[in-house]
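FAQ: What does the model actually see?

It sees only this:
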Amino acid sequence: MLDLYNVKKTFNLGTINEKQALSGIDFYLKEGDFVTVIGGNGAGKSTMLNAIAGVWPIDEGSISIEGVNVTALPEHKRAKYIGRVFQDPMMGTAADMGIEENLALAIRRGKSRTLRWGITKEERERFHEDLKILGLGLEDRMTSKVGLLSGGQRQALTLLMATIQKPKLLLLDEHTAALDPKTAANVLELSDKIVAEHNLTTMMITHNMSDAIHHGNRIIMMNQGKIILDISGEEKKKLTKADLLQKFSEVAGVSEETDEILLS
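And it is asked to produce this:
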């Protein structure tokens, strides 16, 4: 479903601030894979996600989604393949528009636009049923402005918007980092439910080792623009935080005390 081959990205090339963010990434996801991505600040996690989404062009390599080479496609042309939930609950929605209007925008993503705008009766009925899944009572507030929602409600709505068309690839960009622990746990539970229900191929970036271990069927760890660990199957199911720190320590060649600070 996703294939990255020898992907490289350097920022501020030729200046004193030159930084190689991705150092020849080779990575693939099979259909239905749910991979969590962990690593310290500057490891390359967000750079890889943004490269996949088309936020910026890569310097070398190729990116394919379901066999389609999207390397040269700009961000807006990749929208029909990708659903994305950002770290900031304020992103991904239009605050001055109603809940049903935001869902209408999402369901039309990647489709040709016409002068006709109105939300159909069928769409409104579908939105009502889809919102029920969130368990937040938003199905009874469909005309409410999204800007009036709490951070957790807004992030749950963004998750629904990102998956309403069943994207080829779902990108979760530290989507619970700005939420309080209880709300974050609820949004993660909802994420698991939606991913499983639609068998979505998913990539989730997180700084939380416990979340990385307990969600998904595969975990990768990045360091200095490279993937240094890739764990799946039974090995991942048995993985503990201590195991993860030890493995990182062995591969990256740094002390576990430092790792805990980097990855907590």
